[in-house]
Hints:
The structure is a single chain. The chain has one domain: 2-enoyl-CoA Hydratase, Chain A, domain 1 (Alpha-Beta Complex), CATH 3.90.226. It has helices at 3-8, 36-50, 74-79, 84-102, 119-122, 153-157, 164-171, 177-182, 195-205, 208-215, 223-226, 228-235, 240-248, 253-264, 267-278, 285-299, 304-314, 332-339, and strands at residues 12-17, 20-25, 57-62, 67-69, 108-112, 115-117, 129-132, 137-139, 188-189. By secondary structure, it is α/β, with parallel strands linked by helices. The two termini are 37 Å apart. 48% of the residues are buried. The model has no long low-confidence stretch (mean pLDDT 96). Helices cover 48% and strands 11% of the residues.
Amino acid sequence: MSAANEADEPPVLGEVRGCAGILTLNRPRVLNALSIPMFALLHARLREWADDPRVRVVVVRGAGERAFCAGGDVRAVYEARGDDAYMDRVYRIEYELDEYIARYPKPYVALMSGVTMGGGCGISVHGRHRVVTETTKLAMPEAALGLFPDVGSSHFLARCPGHTGMLLALTGLRVDGADAVHLGLADALVSSGRLDDLVEALARTGDADTAVAMCARPSPPTRLLADRSGIDACFGRESVAAIVGALRGVDDPWAREAGRAIAAASPTSLEVAFRNLREAPGRSLRECLTTDFRISQRLMRMPDYFEGARAIVVDKDRDPRWRPSRIEDVDPRVVDACFAPLGPAMELSFA
């Protein structure tokens, strides 16, 4: 699809085919990155289909071969820096959608083929049927951007085996489809060549459980599972600094890779992400999203996100200058302030 043609196309396509309502994220040039209009379109169509007797199951997929969804539109947020009303709107509408997906009254099937990151996890991992393929690259890479793993990800990362969720939160590690199933972030591994068969079965029968089971294949053992004991020993520590120290003492490729990723991330983001995940067990998804909204609004008034977006997305020099630049220089009072309530008029609400 050319740039001109893509600009003329709706960013979300919707159709009812047999028993299935099918939503297609339709910005393949930018890996189906999510914008405010897309959040609004998704939410509106889901509410419409919730009451439509023709629709027995909803399917969400991404256009193109490369991605389900790479996350939120970082460039759009970068260009809106300083606009507090925009920052309120973009995070509020996204998190409200994520929460609605989690309690959607009909089977919701997300086809997480290709890149599935950040906000893409928000509109998939919270759903009832999470389908991955051999091309899936799932990650929450926000700390490298000066943000933090949001979209209620603390709710599902805290439920990953052992301390693998902390590994994903701090390093932005990309996991494949088999890993996603073993970590509890997906339900079924389906060959990418069978996704159309799965959609047709869903449209024909409306039976998500049977259709997914029919197309699924076993998830093979993964390297991440083999490294579990070392991961748990390092990422179960009591602070980010202690995790970094533990990684330095492990002579293994996974530990060196994790150490490099943490060293490149925003120190403030790392501290916020660490605390957010440590406090997540026992919280409902709504509570996790409410906390995420508080944090997002505070970080949008700080420099690191916009510096990270500049370095990685805009200028692409991959040399962000974090403030502060060292984990030991992060002021605990700044972290505390990120978690403080916003006040009744500004808090996230759910319809």
